[in-house]
Fold:
Amino acid sequence: MLIQLEGVTKIYEVGTEKVNALGGVSLSIEKNEYLAIMGPSGSGKSTLMNVIGCLDTPTSGSYRLKDQEVGDLDDDELAEIRSAEIGFVFQTFNLLPRMTAFQNVELPLIYSKAHRRTRAERVWSVMDAVGLRERALHRPNELSGGQRQRVAIARALINNPSIILADEPTGNLDSGTGEEIMQVFEGLHRAGNTIILVTHEEYIAEHANRIIRLHDGLISSDERAARGASPTRPVGSAERT
Amino acid sequence: MEFRETFLSALRTLGSHKMRSALTMLGIIIGAGSLVAVMSLIAGLNQSVTAQFQSVGTDIISVSHFPWVQMGDSDEYRNRKSITIHDSDAIASLPSIGLVAPNIHTRRGLSYGGESMRRVRVSGTTPEYETIDNYSVESGRFITQFDVERRRQVVVIGSDVSEKLFGLRDPIAKEMRIGGKIFLVIGILEEKGDIFGESLDEHVIIPFTAFKKAFGSRRSVVVDCQPADGVTMTRAIDDIRALMRIRRQVPRDKPDDFAINTQEDLTASYKQLTGVLYFAMTGIVALALLVGGIGVMNVMLVSVAERTREIGVRKAIGARRRDVTFQFLIESVILTVLGGALGIGGGAGIGVLVRVATPLPAATTPGSVGLAVAFSLITGIVFGVYPALRAGRLNPIQALSYE
Structure:
């Protein structure tokens, strides 16, 4: 089992008020699953993503990632787990503007202390994987939205993470480009990666093989798609020419 | 995170805010610059003053009614009794004293042919003055005992006097006028240079007796002397003090009403002066660096706030606290060290300018450069630590959602 959450709660204190963002979530995710987490805003899906992504720790309950309990780790230990196991893809890309695409992709390798020579090799191979070799030396403001998201995906892939966590990855893209990005995830899934999508768009979630719906901090449904590895034609593909 | 990457990244960041970085560095530039500049001026001053002090002679004891370096109320000095030639004779008779040269001074106009000089220092003394006060004769001869005994109207002239009055002519055996009186030139002194901006070579020396006859005998005498062979300076000074107090009838509970000057006194008061200078300078530099450091801290705090999202991203992709803290610390240290380097360059430039444009041999000292580097490094660390720690402690989730 790659990910195992048991009775995970998360309580935030906003002023004197306590907010129950997660009210006891239990969830298991296997390696090479393609999972979508859905729910309206305020349902706790962001909190769940933060917990799974080791950006945050549960208030109570247990989160085991690769059989290691993550709940009681400190800041720096969590950072090391993020560095080794998690690849984040954000809605707003979150590339560093003063660096080239190459440097952005390279950054996680620097934090994981990879050797300089192996770094370049690795960066080029993931740039190839997302089809951006020619744009590698451009800065984010010289790239289109789709290209920026590809750079972000390349950055997420660079450390060979156990999980790719994508938070509304198509939210800032037009539907055609969004579809291209979903094809990239498709490819990554086929190549053996575990992908967790956080979205509130049905047609995006349909790319996944398993959809978890959250409501008020609890899982309200957990469905596995009957179809196999290849999903049905998604919305948006028809618009492409 | 590797140092090289952090360093390059910091340079990139600072480079993207050139104006801001430059303005931030200004305080440090001024601090480090003034440190190096002032220290090179003091070094120059030290060098020229040391050279000048050596021209005075190290084992000279000069008894006068005014001290060389006067402090406090000058009225007290003015009412002192003159020192006389009899005091000089008494000092000469002390067994602990070797050579003695009584000397008296005035300022008079000089002339020869159509040339003249105003207010030149005229000294009346004895042959021993040459040895005690470190004079050497370049051509001709110094005054002799015979000249003194016979009150001969002869004069030994300084090199500036020779140049200005006689030009290319040989002054020896020429008759010149000192304060209207005719004197025969018998020698020219070797060049002595300046002391505190006054030329020592605008000077003429005549026999003590001739001086009194020509310019009056009521001036207080200065007694320059040396300890006898094998006698320490301290012992010689003690003997002179005891003798003079008896001769001048100074009551036991009163301080000396005369001064015994040595080169050591000069050095001591000079050191006191530079001590004050150093102290004032340290204050100024500390203040400049404090102000500069506060500027650095302010800019770094702004930078941390501006880059909150970047910090969030970095943490999400695996940066630990110390990676982020170190990154910001490096930035502030680069700012201050670069500012320090520019300041050192500027300060050294001022030193060179002073050396070229003034007689002061200002020289940038390695010590001042080291101090400036250390100060700017420390400033960068001290004022960069707080913003850097704040950056490192940011919560990644909050940082990522920061607009």
Remarks:
- The two ends of chain B are 27 Å apart (CA to CA).
